[in-house]
Structure formats: structure tokens, C-alpha cells
Write a structure and sequence with these properties.
about 500 residues; alpha+beta; 7 helices; 16 strands; elongated
């Protein structure tokens, strides 16, 4: 065996002596803990005495752990040393040709000391790992009055991190649920990544997918890569004012504004079954819809946006919000039926009918603003929308009865809009909205309308360049019907309870 001056037995003996002092360390720590407990809160608060004593206790606990590990560490180090000594001896004889006693002994001892140091550092690393594991929770569930949240794996530090998250929330006549792959909660902000939300109310179902969603406690939100699908039904009444170009120009002049360029070109054709060709005609003879007395509609829509954000606020007397979309694409389809207010050759008539619409649009930027003073039961509201660089297309088909005769209509239209703005003001009454809406846009468009009436098939082709302007009145009466229905159910329930009570007295 090589002659290296390392007395392994003496090292083992020294560690044993040190280990025997461990009870003294325990006793000292307990004495300090008892001293800390006996101090009054007044004394503890002076110059951070309580914190310093806690620091001393922590350091003694660390020393306690290190002393406990010394015997096993020393045994392992000495065993490693002996194996290394044997390896060096064999290597010296077999490969180099001189005995292992010529090996630099101090260098070898330094290597063993470095190994022991690394081993102790590894213990510190394991302690830190244990500390982080203590912050982790498997299947963390949190219940509030109307909301339940759960995360498969949660890590809590200054912030809270969640993996595979879900929530369920209930409100009056509505509920929502959602899942996300990753969640970060920091103060009043919550970030979710790769998620899906589902919302259901009395008249609407909505599914939203997103790459990133950031929300605040004040209901502000920001989406990155958002897609949304919506299905809803509506009960509405509306009237669209007929405004020709001359009336539009006069309206601008009355408002003290310079009249914009308004140019429209329309060509009318009629199909001749004898020749099988379209020929010039005097225009469509179909009745033009002026408004809806009452109409029930069902619609679906979908949208995708690169970036979308909403800022909102509310108080005891009102609420409002501002939202913006960048790179937005939308598609929609709807079916509707009802009693419509129509005009045919100057005669205003009521016509039952059904119809369907489909359309799509792409815009570079859209901004919306909404405000309300009061409540949904009684209040005043305002809405505004602005869009830029927008392209849209529409198609529609309708069937109605006018003076007992069937009329069929169909149309397609496309527009490229440089800029568009619209505004609406109105009243909130019993959960419904009654308002007036105006819209203006600058762009170019083309359309084709087909109609069958009085046994003739006709077509109207039109193109526009310049400014478009519309004005309409609309009432969303679905909310009113719901409110009245809920009220009747409540009153009916109270009458039923009162009747039961009276009969119970008679019995």
C-alpha cells in the first residue's frame, strides 16, 4: 500500500468526538428559544432584538444539521480516499513504473477536501429544493360565494403560478367556465396562457379561445391571439329612415358642415323569358323594408383578432368601457322572422316574412366606447364605434307576403371602407334598449339585388364612391320581455303562496 501520511483512524475519531458534542448544541438552542419566549413584546421590539435572536436560532439549527451529517460524510470521504489511494498505487506500478509513495500527498488531500466541500454544498442545494417543494401544492381548490377555481399544480411565492387551471362562476341567469394551461397571479392582475372560456346567458352562448389573456380585478382585459364564437337570439323592433343623397347633403349643410362627395350609380334590369336575356327596366318592383314591428332572430358569429383590449369602470350611478381590436376578422350568419313595415309604390304596408343573412369583414383597427348612467332597469346609454381600413361583404335572401302575394328577394354587396364611425344614444327601460343610431363611412362599394314580384324577375346593380350615411331607430325588447316575465313569475308565486296560506287557515 502507498505511504501517504493521512491518518484515517484519527479523522474518524475526531468526528466522533465532535458528534458527541451535538447534545450540547441542542441544549444551547433550547435555552435561547426559552429566552426568546420569556422576553416581553416591548423588549423584543427594541433594535430588532427578536429578529436577531431568531437569526441565531436559525444558524444553530443549520450547525446542528451539519454536525449530524459529519460522521457519515467522514466515513464516505475516508472510503473514497482509500479507494483512490489503491487506484493510484496500482496505476503507478502498472503504467509509470514507480511506487505510489512518490505521488504528491498534499495535492491528493486537497482533492479529498474539495470533494467533502462539494458534498456539503449538495446538502445546501437539497435544503433549497425542499424549501421550494414546500411552496408547491397538488390540486389546489379555492371556493368563493359564486366562483370555484382549481389548479392541478400550484407554486406560491410573491406571485402565484398555476398549471392546468379551471374555473366555474355563476350569476343571475348566466354562468361561465374556463380552462387554461398556465396561470400567473400578481397583485390585482391575472395572466392566463393557452386557454378556453365558455359563457352562457339567457339569450347568448359564447366560446372564446386565446393565446394570452390578462385581466384585472376591475374587469379590464387584454387578449393576444383571440378567437371567439357566439350564438344568440334576439327580439327587436326597428325603423330605418329613408334618406336620399339630396337629403343627406342638406343635413350636412344644416349642421354647418361641408357637404361631402356623394356619388351613386344604379342600373336596373328585367329578365325577358321570351328572349332569355336581361334587358333594361324601370327598377325593382319589390317592396322595400322600412322597419320591423316585431322580429325574432337567431344568429351565429365568429371572430379572430391579433390584439384586443378593454378598459372599464363602474360606480353606483353608472358604468362605461373602451375597447380596441387590432387585425380583426369576423364572420356572421343569421335567420329572422317577423312582421315588417314595408313600402311599395308609396303605400306603407305590414308584411310577414322570413330572411337569412351571411357576411364577413376584415379591419386593421376597431375601437368601441360604451357608457351608461343609471341601471338596466332605468337609465341613459351611449355607444360609439370607429374603424379604419375595413373590407366587408354581405349576402341576404328573404321571402315575404305583400298584399297577399309572395315576394322573393336576394342580394350581395361588398365594400372597401377607408374609415367608418357610428354612434347610438338611447334609454334603458326594464332591461331593454330604445335608441337612435347614426353611421357614416368613406369608401367604395358595389351591390347586386335580385327580386321576384308581380310575376317578374328583376335585378339592380349599383356602385358607390364617396360618403355613406344612415340613420335608424331601434329597440331591443328581448330584455323587457324577460323582465316582465320574471316579474309575472314572482307575482304568480307570491299569489300562489298567499292562496296556500289562506286555505291552510280555512282547513
Amino acid at each position: 500500500m502507498a505511504l501517504i501520511s493521512v491518518d484515517t483512524e484519527s479523522i474518524i475519531q475526531a468526528t466522533s468526538i465532535l458528534f458527541k458534542k451535538l447534545p450540547d448544541v441542542h441544549s444551547a438552542k433550547l435555552d435561547i428559544i426559552r429566552l426568546q419566549s420569556s422576553l416581553s413584546s416591548d423588549v423584543k421590539g427594541r433594535r430588532g432584538i427578536d429578529g436577531k435572536i431568531s437569526s441565531i436560532i436559525s444558524k444553530i439549527s443549520s450547525l446542528d444539521g451539519r454536525i449530524s451529517n459529519i460522521p457519515s460524510t467522514a466515513q464516505f470521504a475516508m472510503s473514497t480516499y482509500k479507494n483512490a489511494e489503491r487506484e493510484i498505487y496500482n496505476k503507478g506500478i502498472q503504467s509509470i513504473g514507480f511506487p505510489a509513495k512518490n505521488v504528491n500527498e498534499s495535492y491528493f488531500i486537497d482533492q479529498v477536501a474539495e470533494f467533502v466541500k462539494d458534498l456539503l454544498d449538495f446538502k445546501d442545494i437539497m435544503y433549497k429544493i425542499d424549501e421550494h417543494l414546500a411552496r408547491m401544492f397538488l390540486l389546489n381548490v379555492k371556493a368563493q360565494s359564486n366562483k370555484l377555481t382549481a389548479s392541478l399544480l400550484t407554486y406560491k411565492n410573491i406571485n402565484t403560478y398555476g398549471l392546468l387551471n379551471a374555473y366555474y362562476e355563476e350569476g343571475k341567469n348566466k354562468y361561465s367556465a374556463g380552462v387554461s394551461l398556465f396561470q400567473l397571479i400578481s397583485n390585482s392582475l391575472t395572466l392566463n396562457a393557452l386557454g378556453l372560456d365558455f359563457n352562457k346567458s339567457r339569450h347568448k352562448v359564447q366560446v372564446t379561445g386565446y393565446g394570452i389573456k390578462v385581466e384585472s380585478d376591475e374587469d379590464d382585459s387584454l387578449y393576444l391571439l383571440k378567437s371567439q364564437f357566439t350564438a344568440k337570439d334576439s327580439l327587436k323592433s326597428n325603423y330605418k329612415l329613408k334618406i336620399d343623397n339630396e337629403k343627406k347633403e342638406k343635413l350636412f349643410e344644416d349642421l354647418g358642415l361641408k357637404s361631402p362627395t356623394l356619388r351613386d350609380k344604379v342600373d336596373n334590369y328585367e329578365y325577358n323569358p321570351k328572349t332569355g336575356k336581361w334587358e333594361k327596366s324601370d327598377g325593382l318592383t319589390n317592396a322595400k323594408r322600412l322597419g320591423t314591428l316585431v322580429g325574432q332572430g337567431i344568429g351565429v358569429s365568429g371572430s379572430v383578432s391579433l390584439l384586443e383590449g378593454t378598459l372599464s369602470g363602474k360606480s353606483d350611478w353608472g358604468k362605461g368601457s373602451i375597447s380596441a381590436k387590432v387585425g380583426n376578422a369576423e364572420g356572421a350568419a343569421s335567420l329572422n322572422a317577423g312582421l315588417y313595415y314595408v313600402d311599395k309604390s308609396g303605400n306603407k304596408l305590414i308584411s310577414p316574412g322570413v330572411g337569412a343573412k351571411v357576411g364577413g369583414s376584415v379591419s386593421a383597427l376597431e375601437m368601441n366606447a360604451n357608457g351608461q348612467i343609471g341601471t338596466d332597469m332605468l337609465g341613459v346609454y351611449g355607444k360609439g364605434q370607429v374603424s379604419a381600413l375595413k373590407a366587408e361583404s354581405k349576402a341576404s335572401v328573404g321571402l315575404g307576403m305583400v298584399n297577399g302575394k309572395p315576394e322573393l328577394s336576394a342580394g350581395i354587396a361588398a365594400e372597401a371602407i377607408l374609415g367608418e364611425a357610428s354612434g347610438e344614444v338611447g334609454l334603458n327601460v326594464l332591461g331593454g334598449e330604445v335608441g337612435a343610431r347614426a353611421a357614416v363611412n368613406v369608401g367604395i362599394g358595389a351591390k347586386a339585388d335580385f327580386g321576384y314580384a308581380d310575376g317578374k324577375i328583376k335585378c339592380q346593380l349599383g356602385a358607390s364612391l364617396g360618403v355613406g350615411f344612415d340613420l335608424s331607430l331601434e329597440a331591443d325588447i328581448g330584455g323587457m320581455v324577460d323582465t316582465v316575465g320574471d316579474g309575472m313569475n314572482y307575482v304568480g308565486g307570491r299569489i300562489y303562496d298567499a292562496g296556500n296560506y289562506i286555505f291552510s287557515l280555512i282547513d
